[in-house]
Write a structure and sequence with these properties.
alpha/beta; 2 domains; 13% strand; 10 helices; TIM Barrel; 355 residues; 11 strands; 33% helix; two-stranded antiparallel ribbon
């Protein structure tokens, strides 16, 4: 048998036959392994942990703002004690006029600050001396005279700005820098109308309340940074309109709601039931002569000493008027008086307590 095998695999043909047999055996082994598959593994199985039951995420707690004590609001009175220039118009004290796009009206700020506080001239409320005040009206009508008034007169002098003034920006800027508080003049129907004409934007007795309110808002939007309103307009005092109780009370109510005081130029006609207010006691430049001015200013000083306070008014910042007022203010300390801005002279809405 072995002899026959040697004959089969002898020589080159035998070698070829041998390789064919080897390759056949290898092919058969491969087929067998493919059929049997990979060998069974005996490695320990990894522990499979059960998936935890899903629970809904807790609802987020509402964010509650930290409760802080409310800031103390300013006292409900005009004026300020701190020295320094009068503040520029504050956006927080302004709101849009819904009836006129672009016009801004004064208001009480969200934190309770009022124009009659923020824009007030500084004044030492601890003083025991009698207070005397003076308003110079017609500011803005003549720019040179108005700027001269701001630079010449002490800060205790209050200004009144005409709503018809066209060049008032420099005048008011000079006034604030020098520490002067100011009012806006409100045209009202005067005695002697129509001979005495307060202008096309005046509050009139023959107009409905809605139209007068529109005119009021126009005046209030003319400038910014003022502490209040007055019916001083040149020689006119709005006497006829002021006697219309219903309409006038509506005006005063609007002023009060906006944090503004009111100065009544009708002599001796204080109004304190609705708005912070004071009335003028004396007009010092009628007639506008040097001797008359000096005499009227001395009379104003006597009134202040007798009553504890008094308020005078000049209708325009004429050069001679400014000169005599400046000389008079220099003598007040020797007379036991103190020059006070209007915000230090107004009376309480409850009935007359000065601050």
């Amino acid at each position: 048998m072995f002899g026959r095998l040697r004959l089969i695999f002898a020589g080159w043909w035998g070698l070829a036959r041998a390789w064919m047999v080897v390759l056949g055996l290898l092919g058969a082994a491969g087929v067998t392994l493919q059929i049997l598959g990979p060998p069974t593994s005996h490695a320990p199985k990894a522990e499979v942990k059960p998936t935890p039951t899903a629970h809904p995420a807790p609802e987020p707690r509402p964010v509650v703002a930290e409760q802080r004590p409310a800031a103390a609001l300013p006292q409900d009175r005009p004026g300020r004690d701190a020295p320094g220039a009068v503040a520029d118009p504050d956006p927080g004290l302004l709101e849009s006029n819904p009836a006129a796009r672009g016009d801004m009206l004064p208001r009480i700020s969200s934190d309770g600050r009022m124009p009659m506080q923020v824009y007030a001239a500084p004044f030492d409320r601890e003083t025991k001396r009698a207070r005397v005040g003076l308003i110079v009206a017609g500011i803005g009508m003549n720019e040179a005279d108005s700027i001269a008034a701001a630079r010449t007169l002490p800060s205790g002098v209050t200004f009144a700005v005409s709503p018809y003034a066209e060049h008032f920006q420099k005048s008011l800027s000079a006034a604030r820098i020098a520490g002067h508080e100011y009012l806006i003049s409100l045209p009202m129907e005067p005695e002697g109308f129509p001979l005495n004409d307060p202008g096309i934007r005046a509050l009139m007795t023959n107009q409905p309340p809605a139209q007068n309110l529109e005119q009021l808002n126009w005046v209030l939007s003319r400038i910014g940074g003022y502490v209040g309103v007055t019916n001083i307009l040149g020689p006119m005092r709005g006497e006829r309109f002021s006697l219309m109780t219903d309409q006038m009370d509506a005006v005063l109510s609007v002023l009060r709601s906006r944090g503004l005081l009111y100065v009544d130029a009708r002599l001796g006609q204080a109004r304190s039931k609705v708005a912070w207010s004071v009335s003028v006691d004396l007009v010092v430049d009628e007639p506008a002569s040097r001797e008359a001015l000096d005499a009227r200013l001395e009379e104003l000083s006597r009134l202040a000493k007798d009553r504890g306070s008094a308020l005078g008014m000049a209708t325009a910042p004429r050069p001679m008027t400014l000169e005599r007022i400046a000389a008079w203010t220099n003598s007040l300390n020797n007379g036991g008086l103190v020059l006070a801005p209007v915000t230090a002279l107004v009376e309480s809405p409850a009935g007359g307590t000065k601050n």
